């Protein structure tokens, strides 16, 4: 059927109105709080360039970082890399406006980059050290077109220097500040990675976790953190603590942004071959983005342990009351909550977790010495060298304000002997007969815990977890909710986390005075 002019008129008017509304919506684009999808759409419409984006963040870091101390270094080549990304889009067309291409990212300062940036774990002992190559995850980020904006602050040596180090403190950047309140613990050790995205000093960031270092700062700074299954992301080129527990994951403002980053960094790496080859079987062939389902909670079996201190409850009325509304939301969105779960021989299993205090120092010394030995150049070549460095400069407040008790404990170890093997066996048993049995016996898709209380449980067994913003207390302090699962359960956890996020939209940006 042909349309005459009279019939066409209303269609044209509606089309023009829709186009005008689209332009109005597009004209409201601002960089703060923009998601990866928002930014890519702005790139596509020529409303933004990567260079403008990078320059915005550099200026914002200049203004805010003296207050929040979330960034240790800015990449001097960041603007050049942004211009290169812009030229690639110009040459190859709008189809190149996708994923992480042209998107700036900050890396925790224990993740190596073979460029003009330092990789120091926040310590002057590694300043001007030269790494042999990009970390495995950095190589993948560059291949995805991401722009390495700089290095984020962290608790020095990923909190493995001293038990009394304040969250986020390191000699190079000093003490970071939680943007939601000066008295609120920013948590660590991936402190700067969380603060930088919370304050919109970068689009997305990477953190690392050995025992809570992604989940806790994500929880305390109202951002999303994904702690992947150990081996899903390469640890090659990451200053280590424990190859058995170390993992690298995204810290972003939304679940979708975190999934974009996760998609880019997972997979085999010849420099972390054993772990990444083993975990590669868990990666879905079509990636993780397809698991961003609004109805992702429907039919999921979620476990809640109300009477166990190790999982943050222990009949704590205040905590229980705070999270009852969250449990109701999960139910309303179709999740099946399996409550009041119990673990047989709980006290015996939890006591086995203490074996980590034997295993981790020994693992740390071996792994750190191997990392330092592999550097092209470095002021220190071993843990004992780092200890000597700290002793030499202990009178200088600028460098060393805190002791190195964990360093000293680790230095006294002598490899993996009988005691350490027994400790490692205890940790394996605790995971198998504790968390894994709980999950399998109850056919759970995830365990739900308040805050980041289950981080040690997930860390010891190498299991994944996702922290999602869950609200704010009466003082404005953020808190999160954590969904943890068995190895390789990231697709399911993403569906759960995204479903919860979309149902609640709890996150709100901190009040920033620029």
TrEMBL record:
Residues 52-453 form the Amidase domain. Keywords: Signal. The keyword Chaperone does not apply. It comes from the Eukaryota. It holds the Pfam family Amidase. Residues 1-26 form the signal peptide. InterPro entries: Amidase_dom, AS_sf. This is Amidase domain-containing protein.
């Amino acid at each position: 059927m042909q349309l005459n002019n009279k019939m066409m008129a209303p269609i044209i008017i509606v089309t023009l109105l829709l186009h005008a509304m689209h332009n109005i919506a597009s004209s409201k684009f601002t960089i703060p709080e923009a998601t990866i999808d928002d930014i890519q759409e702005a790139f596509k419409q020529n409303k933004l360039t990567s260079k403008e984006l990078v320059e915005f963040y550099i200026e914002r870091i200049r203004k805010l970082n003296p207050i929040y101390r979330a960034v240790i270094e800015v990449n001097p080549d960041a603007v050049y890399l942004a211009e290169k990304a812009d030229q690639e889009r110009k040459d190859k067309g709008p189809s190149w406006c996708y994923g992480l291409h042209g998107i700036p990212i900050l890396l925790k300062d224990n993740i190596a980059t073979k460029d003009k940036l330092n990789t120091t774990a926040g310590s002057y002992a590694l300043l001007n050290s030269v790494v042999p190559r990009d970390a495995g995850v950095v190589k993948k980020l560059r291949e995805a077109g991401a722009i390495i904006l700089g290095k984020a602050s962290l608790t020095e040596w990923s909190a493995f220097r001293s038990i009394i180090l304040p969250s986020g403190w390191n000699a190079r950047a000093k003490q970071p500040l939680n943007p939601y309140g000066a008295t609120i613990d920013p948590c660590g050790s991936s402190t700067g990675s969380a603060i930088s995205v919370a304050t919109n000093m970068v689009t997305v960031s990477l953190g690392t976790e050995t025992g809570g270092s992604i989940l806790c700062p994500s929880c305390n700074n109202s951002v999303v953190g994904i702690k992947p299954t150990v081996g899903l992301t390469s640890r090659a080129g990451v200053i280590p603590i424990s190859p058995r527990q170390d993992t690298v994951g995204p810290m972003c403002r939304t679940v979708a942004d975190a999934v974009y980053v996760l998609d880019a960094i997972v997979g085999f790496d010849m420099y972390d071959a054993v772990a990444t080859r083993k975990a590669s079987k868990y990666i879905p062939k079509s990636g993780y983005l397809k698991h961003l389902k609004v109805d992702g909670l429907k039919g999921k079996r979620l476990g809640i342990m109300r009477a166990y201190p190790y999982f943050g409850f222990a009949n704590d009325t205040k905590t229980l009351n705070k999270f009852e509304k969250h449990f109701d939301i999960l139910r309303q969105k179709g999740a099946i909550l399996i409550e009041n779960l119990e673990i047989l021989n709980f006290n015996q299993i939890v006591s086995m977790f203490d074996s980590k205090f034997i295993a981790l120092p020994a693992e740390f010394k071996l792994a750190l010495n191997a990392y330092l030995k592999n550097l092209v150049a470095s002021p220190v070549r071993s843990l004992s060298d780092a200890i000597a460095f700290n002793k030499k400069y202990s009178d200088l407040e600028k460098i060393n304000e805190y002791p190195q008790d964990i360093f000293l404990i680790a230095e006294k170890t002598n490899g993996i002997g009988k005691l350490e093997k027994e400790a490692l066996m205890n940790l394996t048993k605790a995971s198998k007969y504790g968390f894994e049995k709980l999950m399998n016996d109850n056919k759970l898709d995830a365990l739900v815990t308040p805050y980041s209380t289950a981080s040690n449980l997930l860390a010891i067994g190498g299991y994944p977890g996702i922290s999602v913003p869950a609200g704010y207390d009466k003082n404005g302090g953020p808190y999160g909710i954590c969904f943890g699962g068995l190895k390789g359960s990231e697709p399911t956890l993403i569906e759960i986390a995204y479903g919860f996020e979309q149902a609640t939209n709890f996150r709100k940006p901190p009040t920033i005075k620029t």
